[in-house]
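Predict the 3D structure for this chain.
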Amino acid sequence: MITRRSFLKSTGATALAAGGGLPAMMTAMQARAADTTGYKALVCVFLLGGLDCHDTILPYDQISYDRYADLRASLLNDYAALPGGSSRARDQLLPLAPGNAAAFGGREFALPPQLSALHTLFQNGDAAIIGNVGPLIESIDSAGFAGNAIPAPKRLFSHNDQQSTWMSFEPEGARYGWGGLFGDAQLASNANGEPAFTAISLTGNEVFLSGEATRPYAIDSNGVQEIALIDDDVVALPPALAAVLREHFESVGPERANLFERDIVDASVRSLTANDTFNASLMDAPSPVTTPFPNSNLGQQLRAVADTINIRNLLNVNRQIFFVATGGFDTHSGQAQTLPVLQQDVSDSIAAFHGAMQSLGVDNDVTAFTASDFGRTLIINGDGTDHGWGGHHVVVGGGVNGGDIYGDIPVFDVGHAQDAGNGRLIPTTSVEEYAASLGAWFGLTPAELAAALPRLSNFTGGLAFV
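Done. Predicted structure below.
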């Protein structure tokens, strides 16, 4: 059945401006000079719910580990009670050997065994860890935060608002995301012959991919999202009736007098045209991606991204931005039972995606990076953790300056200069700085980065992890 909601999802989320573009706006925009040579893609892997950074990058030197074990005693007891024993025991962790180890004054770090695939990528130089990233207005420490002397982002610790702030630098209700604004810069430099496929979402109409000219084109792990009533896989219609319905959705006939009706018709036509192009390109792909992916929601989303990158030439694009997401990271309780399974999926799915990019020969041209609502408290609530602020993230790709830890990983303790209370980390690297390194690699000029990241000038630190 088709409903108003599903119709709008298909015509809007699939390609509400499937022309990507708004050609008149693009013509009017001032020409810029983003680098559009070759092919490059950014892939945002959003971990919904707030990843516990303290249970992802763990202390490994004995002094730090002992303090960590003391603060999280009951949670570590839960891990120890699991079949097979604890994956958080120090002798079970995977130690990291970053090239910049000396920067941490003898402190050492490790990953849990469930992240073994990411650990291998890091050790091989194909992944970097970015420590303590999060939304900021300007640099702040615990004294500034406690005294309200320095402004902090609005609605901290709120899932929806902090997801939006990560994506757009504003709480829920923002119009543009930095992924979409990166797309705007590339479209203004004519990076893509077909603008519709600049920004591709596997989770619907995400603000991260929305720009002034860029709009998310939504697919799912099975391909494009068709209008159910004219989808051959859903409804078997006689050819004549199918043609009539197609004309209905394309609104063939007299031009509508109502401007809103015209916009809906225009979106529908662009959606259908983009879907036809995408489907035909998948059919004409020179060879399929054969890399095995986990049979999970995230694994299959990333497989669909790999399939889309495989047809980049048929889609006539040089620059693409993708958004995938998976949930379950709001681990207020039962963390020992749930988080390791999620971590295994994230690690295996991202590693499979990197392997697929290697098989396509574009691993140096595709960079995947994680993001999440926030980190979590170091102090546990019994068998789980509560909402935090800053968190640690990973960037993966052949073009990444891997094998190093960028930014900072504060001490595993409370009461330090970056503790907002209960071990909530106050970020030392802003999302703008994180995004700026990705954007520079993507080909944006300093002026374009400043336009897409309006608070970037508030921060003096620069990261060059890619």
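Confidence is low (pLDDT under 50) at residues 1-32.
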